[in-house]
Amino acid sequence: MFRLTTTPHDLGPDFLQDQHRAFALLRETGPVRQILTPQGQRMWMVTRYQEARDALTDPALSKDIHTARARFDPYTLAVAGLELGGALSEHMLNTDPPEHTRLRRQIGRAFTSRRVRELRPRIEQIAATLLDDLAALGEADLLSVYAFPLPITVICELLGVPKEDQDDFRSWSTAMARLNSEQAGAAAMAIAGYLGQLIAAKRAAPSDDLLSDLITAEDDPLNDREMLAMAFLLLVAGHETTVNLIGNAVLALDQNPGQRDLLRTRPELLPSAIEEFLRYDGPITLATVRFALRATEIGGTPIPENDFVLISLAGANRDDRRFPHGEHLRVDQDATGHLAFGHGAHHCVGAPLARLEAEIALRALFTRFPHLTVSPASTLHWRGAMLLHGLETLPVRV
Question: What molecular function terms (GO) are annotated for this protein (predicted)?
Fold first, then answer.
C-alpha cells in the first residue's frame, strides 16, 4: 500500500499498483510536492486540477529535447524519460513553440477530423471480427484479444504498416513505456530501424496513407529525422492510449455494477460515459516530463531552474475542487474539462481517434456480450509504466 514517507515523498515500487490513493494523499498535502520516482529521481509532482492545468501551459516549463541535451547528461535524460534514442526523441511532445507549432500544423493537415470520421466503418468491421474471436474463446484476456489488436490495426493501416509487422509494436512500445534505459534503448533501435525502412519505401512509392501524405506535403515538408520521430509518435501513442482506455473502462464498469446497469439501460449515455472513463481512470497517468527553463512557481511552490516537473493528469482528474465526488465513477455526469488528453498546445492530436475507437469498441462489446464480466479469480496488475496507465492483462468471461 502506498504511504507518504520522508521528504521528498518516496513513491516507492508499489506506487503504480495504487496510484489513485497516492495522488489523493499528495493532493491533501498541497498542489505541488517534491517526490522521488520509482527510478530514484527527484522531481516535482503537480496533483491538483487548477495547478495542473496552469502548469500545462506555463512557458517557463519546457519539453524541448535540444535544450534538455544542452543542460543535462545523457543518463539524467534517459531516466527522466526525455531521451529514447536519437531522432526518435525529436517529436512534437519534446518540442516547444514555435517548432512544436510547425510540426503540429503538418500532422494536422494530414490527420484531419474528416479522415478520422471516415474510419468508422473500418473500425466497426475490425471490432466485429475480433468479437467473433472472443465469442469462440468464451474466456480470454480482453486486452490481447480485443483492446490491443483493434487500435494497432487501425493506426497501422492509417500509416501504411503491413499487417505482419503490427505485433512488434506492442513489445517495443511496452519496453519504452517502462523507461528502463537498457530495454528502452533496444526497443528504440528496433523501431527506428524499421521506421527508417518504411519511410524510405513510402518516399519511393507513396500510397494512400497518412505517412505518404506527410512525405509528399509540398508546404514545409518534414525532413527524414522529423518523419522518423513523427511516425514513431503516431504509432506508439496511436494505439497505447486506446488499449488502456478500453481496458480501464471495462474494469471500471465491472467494479461499479450500478453504473454498468445505468449504461445498459441508457446506451445513449455512452459518449458522455467515454469522457467519464477518461476522467475517472484515464489511459495516461502523467504528462511527459517538463523542466524549468528558469525559476518559476506553481501553486505557490517555488520551482528552481532546471528542476523536473511531472503533471499528474490522473491526480488532477479526481480533484474534488473541480469534479465533486471525484473518486467515484458516474457515467451520467458532465466530465468535460478533464485533462486525460492534456491541455494547451500539447493537447493530444489523436484524441478524436481514441474517442471514436473507444465508443465503437465499447458499444460493440457490450451489445454483443451484455453480461461480460472480469474473471473472478483474476489477479490484476498495472503495467510498470510511469506515464501510461494500463493493465498487464484483463481476463474476462463472455
Answer: heme binding; iron ion binding; monooxygenase activity; oxidoreductase activity, acting on paired donors, with incorporation or reduction of molecular oxygen
CB 175 within 8 A of CB 187: yes
Q: Which three cell numbers stand for residue 338?
A: 478533464
Domains of the chain, earliest start first: 9-397 (1.10.630.10)
d(CA 266, CA 180): 44
Grid cell of 238 as nine digits: 496511436
Pick the closest to residue 341 from 93, 157, 18 (CA basis).
Answer: 93
What does DSSP assign to residue 119?
A: T
* Integer Cα distance of 121 and 4 in angstroms: 49
Write phi, then psi, for 329 (nearest 5 degrees): -85, 125
Contacts of 165 (CB under 8 A, 6+ apart): 156, 194
Query: What is the DSSP pairing of strand 373-374 with strand 395-397?
Result: antiparallel
- Give the Cα separation of 39 and 310 in Å (integer): 14
Q: 40: alpha, beta or left, given left = phi > 0 and alpha = psi -120 to 50?
A: left
pTM: 0.92
Q: Is the peptide bond before 304 cis (omega within 30 degrees of 0)?
A: no
DSSP, residue by residue, 182-223: HHHHHHHHHHHHHHHHHHHHHHHS--SSHHHHHHT--SS---
Residue whose C-alpha is closest to residue 252's, from 272, 237, 273: 273
Q: What is the DSSP letter of 288?
A: P
- Per-residue pLDDT tens, the chain, 398 aa: give them: 344 444 567 787 788 899 999 999 999 999 999 998 887 889 999 999 999 999 999 999 999 999 999 999 988 888 887 876 667 788 888 999 999 999 999 888 888 888 899 999 999 999 999 999 999 999 999 999 999 999 989 998 898 888 788 778 767 766 665 555 567 678 778 888 888 999 999 999 998 899 999 998 888 888 888 898 888 888 888 888 999 999 999 999 999 999 999 999 999 999 999 999 999 999 999 999 999 999 999 999 999 999 999 999 999 999 999 999 999 999 999 999 999 999 999 999 999 999 999 999 999 999 999 999 999 877 899 987 788 899 999 999 99
Tell me whether strands 42-46 and 308-311 are parallel, antiparallel or unpaired: parallel
